[in-house]
Amino acid sequence: MMNKRFLEGMYPWHWVYQLRNSLDFPLRSLISWKRPLPALEKSTNSLPISCFPYPIQGQAKTLIQQFHLNELPLSFTDFQLGVNCYYLDVLTQVFSTIKVEWGATLRAADVGPSDWFYLPALVQFLSYHQALQAREVSLEGFEIDPYRVYADLHSRFDHAQQQCTAFPGVIYHPRAFHEQPEKYDVLIQFFPFLFLKDHLEWGLPRSLFDPEKLFGSLASSLKPGGTWVILNQGNAEHTLQKELVAVSGLKILTAFEFQSVYKHYEKSHWAMVITK
Ligand SMILES: C[S@@+](CC[C@H](N)C(=O)[O-])C[C@H]1O[C@@H](n2cnc3c(N)ncnc32)[C@H](O)[C@@H]1O
């Protein structure tokens, strides 16, 4: 059984977060800040591969070509190329340890995409993993806090919508994930909040913290035999994630700590793929 006290462990200053989040989250939702960004266009310059250290530029090029990142009608900043190569690398590592049978079409959902800065990597991986011809991917993102406003005075929603213009089969839903029984072949959860501490520090109100319920809704929404990819930060979170899976009766196909040459993080990063 899950240790709820551990899950909901808080620090004294989290009462301040709680108070702040209970005020500014509803306000953000009420204002629903949208200031459309122009559609992205393909840059006439080639991708900024030189943002990577020289010894890994060759493997970055191979990864980019394997998943046709260079053919997208998008331009990439150094940061965008770095994170997209990171997510492509992680997905490649994860799926090299298991065998999945994906058909010519795929229905997928990503829960908690933030502003979807890694959307190109995700779509290209789902389209081209073990496929020479791109499969038809319909991908829905569900973000519970889409109207957080950045320093450029555009919201997460604006940035995500701008990314979506490059991918006709992709929709960004500015709302929490809700259960849709056996709808999805693939579910994605990159760094979900399992500890109340993280949930509060990222600005969400305590009343919305229920990782077990969210896990149950996702489990129900996965098709039998479907693929559910989860990334976690830190061993404690990964261990807790495994407990959630064990309680649900779903099956872990692979689970391991990973590293990527494209980005280094202080906390360890863990991957898991489950199915039902
Ligand atoms: C740690 S962030 C991960 C962001 C991104 N996936 C990444 O790889 O960096 C977790 C995200 O999940 C969102 N989130 C939390 N609960 C959610 C829910 N029930 N439905 C949809 N999004 C949720 C949060 O608002 C936040 O943007």
- Main beta sheet: 7 strands, mixed
- The CATH architecture category equals 3-Layer(aba) Sandwich
- Count structural domains: 1
Assign the CATH topology: Rossmann fold
Radius of gyration: 19 Å
Average pLDDT over all residues: 94
Q: Helix segment count? A: 9
Q: What is the chain-wise order of helices and strands?
A: HHHHEHEHEEHHEHEE
The CATH C-level class name: Alpha Beta
Overall geometry: globular
Structural class assignment: alpha/beta
Strand-residue fraction?
Answer: 15-25%
CATH superfamily: Vaccinia Virus protein VP39
- Tell me roughly what share of residues is in helical segments: 25-40%
Low-confidence stretches: none
Bound molecules: S-adenosylmethionine
Distance between the termini: 20 Å
How many strands?
7
Strand order of the largest sheet: 3-2-1-4-5-7-6
Can you give a write-up of this model?
- This protein is an alpha/beta fold.
- The protein has one domain (4-8, 47-275): Rossmann fold, CATH 3.40.50.
- Helix content is 37%, strand content 19%.
- The chain has 9 helices and 7 strands; from the N terminus they run ααααβαβαββααβαββ.
- A 7-stranded mixed sheet has the order 3-2-1-4-5-7-6.
- Helix 4 runs parallel beside helix 5 (119-128).
- The two termini are 20 Å apart.
- The mean pLDDT is 94.
- S-adenosylmethionine is lined by residues 111-114, 142-145, 176-177, 190-191, 193, 202, 204, 214.
- Residues 111-114, 142-145, 176-177, 190-191, 193, 202, 204, 214 line the site of S-adenosylmethionine (SAM).
